[in-house]
Amino acid sequence: MQRVFGSLFGQVVAALVLGVLVGRLWPDFAVSLKPLGDVFIKLIKMVVAPLVFGVVVHGIVGAGDLRKVGRVGLKSLIYFEVVTTIALALGLVLAYVFAPGQGMNVDLAKLDANSLSSYTDRVGQVTGTVDFLMKLVPTTFVDAFAKGDILQVLLLAILFGSGLSLLGERGKPLADSLERITEVLFRIIGFIVRLAPLGVLGAVAFTVGKYGVGSLKQLSMLVVLFYGGVAAFVIVVLGGIMRLAGFSIFKLLAYLREELTVVAGTASSDCVLPQVMRKMERLGIKESTVGLVIPTGYSFNLDAFSLYLTLATVFIAQATNTDLSFGHLMLILGIALLTSKGAHGVPGSAIVVLAATLSAVPEIPVIGLVLVLSVDWFVGIARALGNLIGNCVATVVIAAWEGDIDRAQAHRVLNGEDTADTAAILEAPVAQPHTA
């Protein structure tokens, strides 16, 4: 018993259960615990931008061959596009086959449009490919870090790392300094991660206390179908991809159990980004590959979010008695391919992107978004979990594709022969780039 609760995983699980109990028994008190979860996520986000910058720059300098770095980036984008398209198509199939919204016969006049104002006002932020590409470029170098925009920081890191790599020996002192700074940041994350049980307790207690599990009843078919769809996607699609790469999806899930538990409690994959990057390196994956694939995947490889986007769109159409032709379904798929790239793994953004998708299909009333607002947090848990798993699988697969993974080390870790607590992994020295 002491061994279980002495580990971070055991503590987070205990906090999750305690949060549910507090939310059910003392809902008013539970709502007041919200700052615990918010502060934990803010502490992690505080360090993420400089940490991603340091890891990517160090990885590019260590890789040496800039053409290889570019090749990894291109392969990553191709992989992301193929896999997210499969997820989008699966969402359409599930919605069409199981028809979760049929029979609801929602009266649009009775829906409260005011509850959507905070989301629909931001629709313009995620529509338009040109606007999205323009927002990849920060106003200034410092602005990207001030806003904590991971894609902007990644762009700066790639440019900075490429320039530093071209300096050769003259750039080595600066590269060494960045490596030491990155190691310090990982140590800081190690301290913050020990607060994960408190963060999970606050987030879960608040959610159960405010919304209650009763809010799931009316939309239970949609929620159950989405959870089942994510599970099927992870086991069948991602599991099949992992098997082709020579690894087991179940062993990977066991290896990431601590991070997955934290994500389940906070409904945000942002709060485990540093831990996941370090754990992927510990599998024997080259640091430059981890640094490129994981941060980029957080915006371009949102598998579970993509599945939800098409599923929820068709659900709203069915619930509002909107007939959709095959052409409409293909239009939804095409629009979702674009709008899904403007999402981020934090609860709330899903409604904004869903509104952007619906606005491009005028036959479906945007007011129908009110139907899914009450369960957004609950489906957000599965979205965050599926997105995180998808990005970890992508990192392993692309590393295997490029020969950037030490397979013997990966199998030792996944088989449990080389065990360590997450906090201990974060506090370990920064790994040197692996050479295939």
Automatic annotation (TrEMBL):
Give TM regions: 43-66, 78-99, 150-167, 188-209, 221-241, 315-338, 350-375, 381-401
- The answer to keyword Oxidoreductase applying to this record is no
Please provide the Gene Ontology terms (biological process) for this protein. L-aspartate transmembrane transport
Give the membrane topology: Multi-pass membrane protein
Which family would the database say this protein is a member of?
A: Belongs to the dicarboxylate/amino acid:cation symporter (DAACS) (TC 2.A.23) family.
**What is the predominant subcellular site recorded for this chain?**
membrane
Protein known as: Sodium:dicarboxylate symporter DctA
